[in-house]
C-alpha cells in the first residue's frame, strides 16, 4: 500500500527498468522507490528538504539524488521515455484546446510607455526595432518553446554534448 502522492505498484513496475543503476564506486544506492517518493512528496507539498518525513530516508539522500539527476539529464530522459511509451500505447490525446478567457488590465496599465525607446542605431539594451516587432507577435506558446530550446541548448553545452533537439 502506498501513501497519497506516492508511486503505485503499477507505476513503479513501469519506471524501475528505466532508472540508472549504481556504478559501484560510491557504494550501494538507497532504494530508488523510497527516494523518488520523497522527491515527489517534497515537490507536491513544497516542504524544505530538511523537513522530509523519515519514511523517505535521509533528506540529504533525496536532495543529492534529485540534484544529480537534474544535472545529468536523468529526469529529462525518464520524461522522454515515459512520454514515448504512453504515446505508443495511445494514452495521450494530442488535441489542443484553446481557452478564450479575457484578462482585464488595471486602468493604470493602459497608456504610453514610461521609458523612452533607445536611439536608432543604438545596440545597448533592447534589440533593434525589427526584432521587437517580431517578438511582439509571437504567441505565448511559441515564446515558451523558444525558452525551452534555449534551456536545452544551454544544458547540452554545459554537459559538453550537442543538443538532442532544437
TrEMBL record:
Stretches assigned to the Insertion element IS402-like domain: 7-79
Region (Disordered): 108-135
Any Pfam family hit: DUF4096
Stated name of the protein: Transposase
Record organism: Streptomyces yokosukanensis
Phylogenetic lineage: Bacteria, Bacillati, Actinomycetota, Actinomycetes, Kitasatosporales
Amino acid at each position: 500500500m502506498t501513501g497519497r502522492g506516492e508511486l503505485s505498484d503499477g507505476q513503479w513496475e513501469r519506471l524501475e527498468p528505466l532508472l540508472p543503476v549504481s556504478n559501484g564506486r560510491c557504494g550501494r544506492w538507497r532504494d530508488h522507490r523510497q527516494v523518488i517518493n520523497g522527491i515527489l512528496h517534497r515537490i507536491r507539498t513544497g516542504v524544505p528538504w530538511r523537513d522530509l518525513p523519515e519514511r523517505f530516508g535521509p533528506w540529504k539522500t533525496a536532495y543529492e539524488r534529485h540534484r544529480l539527476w537534474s544535472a545529468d539529464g536523468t529526469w529529462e530522459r525518464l520524461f522522454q521515455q515515459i512520454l514515448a511509451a504512453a504515446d505508443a500505447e495511445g494514452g495521450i490525446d494530442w488535441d489542443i484546446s484553446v481557452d478564450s478567457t479575457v484578462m482585464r488590465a488595471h486602468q493604470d496599465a493602459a497608456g504610453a510607455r514610461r521609458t523612452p525607446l533607445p536611439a536608432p542605431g543604438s545596440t545597448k539594451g533592447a534589440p533593434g526595432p525589427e526584432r521587437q516587432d517580431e517578438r511582439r507577435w509571437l504567441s505565448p506558446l511559441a515564446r515558451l518553446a523558444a525558452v525551452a530550446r534555449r534551456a536545452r541548448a544551454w544544458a547540452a553545452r554545459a554537459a559538453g554534448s550537442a543538443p538532442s533537439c532544437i
